Amino acid sequence: MPTRIVTLWPELQRTTLLFCILALLPWAGCATSTPRPAVALERIVVAADGRGFVGRPSGTPFVPWGFNYDHDEPDHRLIEAYWHDEWDKVVTDFRAMRDLGATVIRIHLQFGRFMPTPSAPDARELARLSQLVSLAEELGLRLNLTGLGCYLKDEVPAWYDTLNEEERWAAQAAFWAAIAARCTGRPGVFCYNLMNEPVVPGGKRADGDWLGPPFAERFHFVQFITLDRAGRPRPQVAADWIRTLTTAIRQHDPDTLITVGLVDWSLDRPGLTSGFVPQVIGPELDFLSVHLYPRSGQLEAALDTLSGFHVGKPVVLEETFPLHCNFQEMLAFLAASRHDVAGWVSFYWGQTPAEARRNGSLRGAIVAEWIELFSAAMATWAVP
User: Fold this and answer.
1) Rounded to 5 degrees, what are φ and ψ at 345?
2) Nearest CA to 39 among 188, 215, 156?
3) What's the Cα-to-Cα distance from 59 to each of 53, 150, 309, rounded to whole Å?
């Protein structure tokens, strides 16, 4: 058993026993946390030690944990597809995530929905985003606003893919300037996440495609920030891109935290790398966000990867799920990761555990059990 897992094994066994007891209670399948009372939200800043977060002005420690709310079930719709006509669903889902104990909800904003032109944002989408921030504040939640999504290729504006690098970066800066101008000063916004899983290609992309391969034959989560680095070092391109977008944000919002969603292969190691080397891009960000799905039998390697993102800034495990390992291994990984990260974000796909179980599918049963286990673990571990 991995060394760091062994040291936490007694505590993990106690927590697993707690989960087993919870599963036998008559309310199993419902929220495992008592809804938090409405309180005035503070702005969140990086703690003085550079390892975590605190509220300002109180200095109270803040642990960002919660869910990626990236699509619904069973239709796999992105939020902009239903947040106008089915607002009640959004409210219901946010209340359910709040009742599970979450402090942060990660929202994925699609570039094409917000930017019908390279420079003029869609006022209707911005207004709905403002309402979403208000909903979060009413429920005592904070949003991780992840932008520039091009998850569905057929919804990417045709003009967007014809832009050269400079023009594309300018359109992306316009997106973030509009978001920041609308959200500045709002305590319901935990952070601006510049992009989900950006990559600097190793060479020229002759096919002209800005998107990586689709996940599950549908969602393009990886996006290239240039098609030709023209001899520039990959980390330099990444840092220049971050600087371009953060400058646009800071013209409107001087305070809200800024991060970017990094694939776990961003480290400067032989083999596959994204070009977003933590040691180079770290100074441009307020904290680092890592996406990591540990593999069965390789928990120590996953923990080593997390350690590689320590550059004097807090690290948040922004995407994680037992995709490649069992529940027991996943819980062991989460327990051990407390030495490396300041927050955890898994997934909620628009169904409570009880609703997920009612569909009778194996997927529904797995998702339901994981939401309960993750929430119980966070209630035990994710406390200041």
Assistant:
1) -135, 120
2) 188
3) 9, 37, 25
Q: Please write the tens of the pLDDT for every residue from 146-204.
A: 999 999 999 999 999 999 999 999 999 999 999 999 999 999 999 999 999 999 999 99
Q: 314 near 287, Cβ under 8 Å?
A: yes
Residue pLDDT, tens place only, 270-293:
888 999 999 999 999 999 999 999
Q: Which residue type is seen at 15?
A: T
The amino acid at residue 217 is: E
Q: DSSP letters of 213-244?
A: PPBTTTB---EES-S--TT--HHHHHHHHHHH
- Cβ-proximal residues to 120 (8 Å cutoff; 6+ apart), any chain: none
Residues 6+ apart with CB under 8 A from 117: 159
Asked whether the beta carbons of 341 and 315 are under 8 A apart, the reply is yes
Q: Which residues contact 287 (CB under 8 A, 6 or more apart)?
A: 46, 53, 191, 257, 259, 313, 314, 315, 316, 342
Q: Which two tokens stand for residue 350?
A: 């628009």
Which residues 6+ apart lie within 8 Å of 20 measured at CB? none
Structure tokens at 108: 């994925």
Q: Order of strands, edge to edge, in the sheet holding 61-62?
A: 43-46, 53-56, 61-62
Name residue, tokens 């966000």.
Answer: 289
Q: Is 19 in contact with 328 (CB distance < 8 Å)? A: no
